[in-house]
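Re: that backbone. Tokens:
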């Protein structure tokens, strides 16, 4: 069998990205960059035609914005086109040219799978190792982007290749369990209006930024009409090309500020509450599985060190899974020690469930030992 040149270990799987395209966040950043380039170009035309002043810096800034947008779109394609992923006996390695990132297979706390919406048989695998909470708290993540059959790749990493069936995002999660795996508990978070209430520093910070953007957009909108009126009184005709370009630049700037503010509000408040309706919790005899549309979290029950219940009101409880790992006890508290903030991705927490006592009793019991691959 071939061996890896870095660790000298036997290679059990190797692959390359099958789907190479920028993520939704990267596409949004590129759109903002192109939009900013158009706005800057509009003001550069006004400065050149009406004021007859130096417009070179504005053109340079517009060119820089357009170049950054192209870099955001094409940069990942260039990097991923020459990258490859390797799974050895002990490690998972992502190779990006001369750069290598590695993570120990036995140190992986859990995995997230992000299915590609356009290709249901491809997606990303994010391997997460959580290490001690407190002052030294950090997370090591290794993401295998655009691989074919990401759930199959994760089965290879966790040593269950012979037990995991082939599947895709078009198949329910319960049809993609291991051959010796069965569901013993399932639930969904209870819907409540308080799920739309901000929690944690991240969401409050996003709302503060959104409020500043809304205030700036409103101020510009209020001052836009008097400004255009004074420009018209100064001799610039309403139907002229220059007036239209000036109005386009001012209106586009206002729309950009309001659009970014709306996105931040959606990410801070609406997204978490809306996606709760599509979230499902599963506990099997071997694993904990969480699914939310095209995102999944896979966690071996052997990684769970403790289960902590926390009241969330209306007779419901949040169940936090405190994980264990090499040289790290009680890692990935995920809210068990007061970390109430919500992130954009799934985490090992059952939120707002009714049968918290039942699932805690199940998770504190011993799981079935996985078969050797």
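Recovered sequence:
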């Amino acid at each position: 069998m071939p061996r890896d040149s870095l660790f000298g270990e036997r290679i059990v799987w190797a692959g390359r990205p099958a789907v190479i395209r920028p993520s939704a966040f990267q596409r949004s950043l590129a759109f903002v960059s192109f939009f900013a380039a158009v706005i800057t170009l509009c003001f550069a035309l006004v400065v050149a035609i009406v004021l007859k002043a130096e417009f070179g810096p504005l053109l340079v800034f517009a060119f820089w914005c357009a170049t950054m947008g192209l870099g955001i779109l094409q940069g990942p394609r260039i990097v991923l086109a020459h990258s490859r992923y390797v799974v050895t006996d002990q490690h998972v390695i992502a190779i990006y040219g001369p750069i290598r990132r590695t993570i120990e297979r036995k140190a992986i706390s859990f995995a997230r799978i992000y299915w590609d919406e356009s290709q249901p048989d491809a997606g990303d695998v994010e391997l997460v190792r959580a290490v001690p909470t407190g002052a030294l708290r950090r997370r090591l993540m290794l993401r295998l982007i655009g691989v074919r059959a990401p759930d199959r790749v994760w089965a290879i990493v966790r040593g269950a290749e012979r037990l995991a069936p082939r599947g895709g995002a078009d198949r329910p999660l319960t049809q993609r369990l291991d051959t010796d795996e069965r569901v013993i508990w399932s639930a969904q978070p209870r819907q409540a209006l308080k799920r739309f209430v901000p929690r944690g520093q991240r969401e409050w910070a996003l709302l503060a930024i959104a409020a500043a953007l809304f205030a700036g957009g409103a101020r510009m909108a209020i001052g836009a009409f008097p400004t255009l009126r004074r420009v018209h009184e100064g001799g610039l005709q309403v139907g002229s090309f220059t007036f239209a370009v000036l109005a386009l630049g001012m209106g586009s700037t206002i729309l950009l500020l309001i659009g970014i503010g709306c996105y931040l509000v959606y990410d801070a408040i609406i997204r978490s509450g809306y996606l709760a309706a599509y979230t499902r919790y599963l506990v099997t005899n071997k694993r904990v599985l969480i699914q939310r549309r095209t995102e999944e979290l896979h966690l071996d029950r052997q990684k769970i060190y403790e289960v902590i219940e926390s009241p969330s009101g209306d007779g419901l409880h949040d169940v936090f899974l405190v994980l264990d790992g090499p040289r790290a006890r009680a890692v990935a508290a995920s809210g068990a020690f007061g970390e109430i903030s919500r992130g954009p991705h799934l985490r090992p927490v059952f939120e707002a469930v009714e049968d918290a006592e039942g699932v805690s009793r199940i998770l504190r019991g011993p799981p079935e030992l996985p078969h050797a691959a």
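The longest strand covers residues 139-148. The two ends are 17 Å apart (CA to CA).
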